[in-house]
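Teaching note: in complex prediction, the entire set of molecules is handled at once rather than each chain in isolation. The prompt given to students was simply: 'Predict the structure of this complex.' The entities are:
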Amino acid sequence: MLETFLILLAAAVFGAVFGSFANVVAIRTHDESSLWGRSHCVNCKTPLKIRHLVPVASWLLQRGKCTACGQRIHIQYPLVEVAGALLAIISVARHMPIQSEWPWILFEFFFGIALLIFLVMDARWMELPVEMMVGTGIIFTVWNMLLRVVSGESVAVVAWSHLVGFAVAACFFLLQWVVSRRRWIGSGDIWLGAIIGAVLGWPALGVAVYFAYILGGGAALVLLLIGKLKPGARVPFAPALASGAVAAIWWTPWLMAWLAYAFA
Ligand SMILES: [Zn+2]
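The expected output is the structure of the full assembly:
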């Protein structure tokens, strides 16, 4: 019991640190500035000290403001740090007892962190870094295929699954882009969808798209109702796609088992 608690606590700290890293990558990719070098307040440019860089805790202690100039710190910082912590906790909790499950835990966690970066960039600036997404897609596709083969699936089945996932996603989103004349989704969304298809493979890609529309539609409806969104306004789609992909990683095996049982 205590051991489980300590493992999850360590996962939360590890996840929050990578959430903080995701913030830095998103912002510096947007600014086209170097990934290395010290962070500073975006308003007064005062370099941040170590005590200002503790995920979530610094933000809480500073009451969401820069200690030098009092400028409000963008809510993105603590939210993404919390999201990183949750991703790590869930990735670990899903594979308890851990033992030899590390390659699966790390795959789920780091793919989630990569998606978090794209989610933030699209939500804040309607931008998606295509080259970074392609690189991420290649690494995680190979990683997931290796995990599946090691788990005992045949190489042919795994290869087909990822090829079909990629092709279905690319065609599906390209078609929407063409039919809607770019109004429903942007070209970056086609890339992100195709990459998620390649990484997850079929049928997980189908589950990801299903969740993406439910989550995206639900979020858009809530925003419309509380007046944060005007009818006809452009809505970033990557947050829904990224969330759908994570949901598919968590629930595809469970859903497939349920479908097999229901239709047996
Ligand atoms: Zn400042």
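Point out the following to students. Residues 130-264 form one domain. The first helix runs from residue 2 to 31.
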